[in-house]
Design brief:
Layout lengths: L2 E5 L4 H13 L5 E2 L10 H14 L4 E6 L3 H7 L7 E3 L3 H9 L5 E5 L5 H12 L7 H10 L5
Parallel strand pairs: 1-2, 1-3, 3-5, 4-5
Helix pairs in contact: 2-3, 4-5
The structure holds D-ribose.
The site of D-ribose has 8 residues, from helix 3.
């Protein structure tokens, strides 16, 4: 299944590096933009990614803004989207194991490339644990409109 990547201008440089990094590994990421360092709005970027995931075209997303905060707030407004900032290596695994996160969020101005790439590798190679976590994830979707 497809893995897509998208960023605002604050995450543009890191996005370009990650696209090249995965290309070298033989993994082609679907690049949903932005395509230059010109200023743009992270809610618009999150929208494009979340619509692709909700339609089933993309299974897993990588979203990047300057801090990772704005774009994750935007993405988590979409029902069924579980976007998690990979703020440590442990968290990169836990958000897959416990939260079944379908979007990994990175900070282009807060994380170095090696740190971000290492956490992305952990995220992509870790499976959801299921079990008790399944019930909790179902409850997330029932919170809509609260
Ligand atoms: C853009 O300057 C910056 O605000 C954005 O990338 C992000 O960090 C917001 O949370």
């Amino acid at each position: 299944m497809a893995i897509a990547i998208a960023s605002d201008h604050g995450g543009f440089e890191l996005k370009q590096h990650l696209v090249a990094y995965y290309a070298k590994k033989g993994i082609s990421l679907v690049d949903l933009g932005t395509h230059s360092s010109d200023s743009c709005d992270y809610p618009d970027i999150a929208k494009v990614m979340c619509e692709k995931i909700k339609s089933g075209e993309v299974e897993t997303g990588i979203l990047i803004c300057g801090t990772g905060i704005g774009i994750s707030i935007a993405a988590n407004r979409y029902k069924g989207i579980r976007a998690a900032i990979l703020y440590s290596d442990d968290v990169a695994a836990l958000v897959r194991q416990h939260n079944n996160a379908n979007i990994a969020v990175l900070g282009g101005r807060t994380m170095g490339f090696d740190e971000a790439a290492g956490r992305m590798d952990i995220f992509l190679n870790t499976a959801f644990d299921g079990g008790r976590h399944e019930r909790r994830i179902e409850k997330l979707d029932s919170l809509e409109g609260c």
